[in-house]
Amino acid sequence: EYSSKLLLLAMAMLLSLSYAVSNNNRKTIVDTIISLVDPAVYNRFQLPISDGPVLVGVKVGFNHIGDIDDNGNTFYSDIHITMDWHDERLAFKNHHDDSDNKTVYMHAAFSERLWLPGLSIINEVQSVRHNVPHPNVLFVISSDGLVTYSERVSIKALCDFDFQLYPMDTQHCELVFQSYHYPQRLVRYEFSNTVNMGNTSKPTIHSVGAQLVAPPLKVFQFHDITDADLKTNVSTFKYESEYTSLKIKIRLIRRTASFIIQYYIPTNLIIVMSWVGFWIPRNVAPARATLAISTVLTLTILITTSSRSFPQVSYVKAIDVSYAIAFIMVFASLVEFAAVCFLAAREERSEDEHRKITSQKMDYLSKFIFPCTYGIVTIAYIVYLVPLSSKQALYFI
After folding, report:
1. DSSP string spanning 90-111?
2. pLDDT for residue 202
């Protein structure tokens, strides 16, 4: 029993000593890195390398996309940006014997003492850096001088919306990343081999229609986002220098089911209701007049109230064409009733038996002409717009 107690005591002392040594080693590495960034030996305004451009790898992870402002031409995204670059001045593998400690996680405030790439988002309108409960920043230094900087930000960015096919439209929104300080000859940015959407990631190719990850991002009024396009450009501005720009283009395909239920179906029912007057005898003028005027007023109110929630643009949208067709059809029914009443009054004063059937013939023909005309126009509307909508959705470059 006495020997077992001595054995337990020896094990406890050994574990304590091991923890103390490991903790001391850890402190030694951190102290070494702090000494490496001493302003006396480290100039944070100087590039990490002098022979060639600094290569910065960029990864972008999307946590959320929403608040699509049609009238303001903006969209909101919650992302985390990760940048990797080598700074040989921070290499500490030769400063310590412990080969197990390859990376050190530093506090976010430590980044203020280092050189940073200065990446900015060109089409940003407003951004928020998250600091609850602490700054959402990941800062890692590897033993070979590899620096990893990751931060979560919420961005409100501009997007060039095109509503000509609304509500069967597809929008292509971009986030454009570019250095605001260093031209391409000093700092060059490249996409890393993964882009994250949601909680998982997969390797993606830097080409049109790059497939991203599951689960897809859910966006209000749009289909789930499952892919994006990564593109690297070189732009020239600011004293004729060339700057590397990274573009992430996101495709937003609008859901049309709610528009069909809320707008297209009520509109078509109002049009059909205006045709009921063709079956009402022409001598029941009050009933036909009430029906014709009611359909016109109802459709006018529907167009007026619903248009307030549509994008306010200066050009014609697809749904505007639909409403114009519907209004013309309903108004034509009202004009047809007025023409029937005029012909009926003239027939009463005429003794010609052949002319007495003119108003009846007009009602009879209207029962077929109006539905057939509207059917042909609707088919043409669909045949013309659906391929354009599909082409716009596939145009993803």
Report:
1. G--TTS-S-SS--EEEE-GGGG
2. 36
Distance of CA 324 to CAs 271, 320, 329, Å? 12, 6, 9
Report if pTM > 0.85: no
CA distance 143 to 97: 11
**CB 177, CB 119: distance < 8 Å:** yes
Burial 316-325 (b: 16+ CB within 10 A, else e): ebbbbebbeb
Query: CB neighbours (10 Å) of residue 259?
Result: 19
What's the CA gap between 252 and 168, in Å, rounded?
A: 11
The pLDDT assigned to 363 comes to 84
d(CA 120, CA 151): 13
Q: Which residues contact 375 (CB under 8 A, 6 or more apart)?
A: none
> pLDDT, tens digit, for every residue of 330-339?
999 999 988 8
In Å, how far are 298, 302, 321, 328 from 266, measured between CA atoms? Answer: 10, 9, 16, 16
Provide the mean pLDDT of the chain. Answer: 79
Residue 222 near residue 159, CB atoms below 8 Å: no
Tokens of 365: 């023909």
Amino acid letter at 124?
E
Q: Would you give the DSSP letter of residue 261? A: I
pLDDT digits (tens, 9 = 90+) for 324-379: 999 999 999 999 988 888 888 777 776 665 555 577 888 888 899 999 999 999 99
Task: Write out the DSSP string of 211-236.
Answer: E--SSPEEETTEEEE-EEEEEEEEEE
Q: What angle do CA 190, 193, 199 make, to 5 degrees?
A: 120
49-53, 144-148, 168-172: least confident range: 49-53
**Which residue's entry shows tokens 């590397």?**
244
Least confident window among 54-63, 77-86, 228-237, 255-264: 228-237
